[in-house]
Write a structure and sequence with these properties.
Distance between the termini: 19 Å
Number of helices: 3
Strand content: 35-45%
Structural class: alpha+beta
Helix content: 10-25%
Number of strands: 11
Oligomer: single chain
Radius of gyration: 14 Å
């Protein structure tokens, strides 16, 4: 994370995580499906999370908060899934842990037409506490 000041009172936070590089993904086929561009980016342009063919993008003002979560059960973590309880989306590659991001307005993510919107996104990143801190700092400053 590299914080700097872009304008007085407006922090710029850059966080780059490569999901497939930071984790010991146990299945070769999953590494191939995700591809080299999968990861989480958080900067002044907003949040962008790519997990293979799935992409979630939202501006910074739509972030409502983040929380480090995990560890997760092995049977429920790998791949893409939608929570039946709240409609939240998960991009998972490891049982170790991740970050649960909440949005002010639900975001597109699973279907290409944007008919299904998600109030939250859980992503398994290498440093969930770092991403959580960055997101919550942004939310506190807005």
């Amino acid at each position: 994370m590299t914080p700097s000041e872009a304008a007085p009172g407006r922090p710029t936070v850059v966080v780059h995580h490569r999901l497939h590089a930071d984790f010991a993904v146990p299945f070769r086929w999953l590494r191939r499906v995700l591809g080299p561009r999968s990861g989480l980016e958080l900067d002044t342009g907003g949040l962008r999370v790519r997990f293979g063919p799935w992409v979630v993008e939202t501006p910074l003002h739509n972030l409502a908060g983040g929380e480090a979560t995990g560890p997760y059960r092995a049977l429920r973590v790998f791949g893409v899934r939608v929570s039946l309880a709240d409609g939240g989306l998960t991009f998972g590659t490891t049982t170790r842990g991740g970050v649960c991001l909440r949005f002010r307005e639900p975001v597109r993510g699973l279907d290409p037409w944007g008919l299904v919107r998600h109030p939250g996104l859980t992503v398994t990143v290498a440093e969930p506490e770092l991403v959580t801190e960055a997101v919550n700092r942004i939310v506190a400053g807005s």
